């Protein structure tokens, strides 16, 4: 059992969405169990409503639900099993996988398992969205309104799980033209959709240094940070 302020297990029941929206970093919202909101005629969410982004002395939050400290979720929710017999093989992009073997593919936020019945379509029950576990590892940073950082270029076709989180030092100043009145929160500051700021010589994980980072409010309530 996993213990991190609350005893929480990962559910495996998900729906598979098209990858087009993942370039905007929506996987982290799905991982949090946030509720998407859409503008008329738009395929991708324009914002999310999320539980657990504010500090709480009584609850932990995971996938949109509140749990009391030391409360455990049914352990069966964490189980992921398939009736493998070792006979089936899957071929993906010219590579052969044995039944039960995991695989993923480029420009996707899906993790897949080779099993009987796979016909080359990346859909359930063969594939599921990647689990980031951000609320388990980085709950304190999330509640401080830090921003997910993806060590990819601005034009990356997908943003899956963040590499780390960037927190405010209070010096950030928004630039760019606001596209709506919806806002992202970063530390104690708010930025309208379309506004951005840059940071230089960002260091994380054992001294790893990024020369330039760009953070932008794209889909509230979190800022999105990538290599600048």
UniProtKB/TrEMBL annotation:
Signal sequence, renumbered to the chain: 1-18
Stretches that traverse the bilayer: none
Residue ranges of every copy of the VWFC domain listed in the record: 88-168
PROSITE patterns cross-referenced by the UniProt entry: VWFC_2
InterPro entries to which the protein is assigned, alphabetical: VWF_dom
Keywords: Signal
Protein name listed in UniProt: VWFC domain-containing protein
Species assigned in the record: Tenebrio molitor (Yellow mealworm beetle)
Species lineage: Eukaryota, Metazoa, Ecdysozoa, Arthropoda, Hexapoda
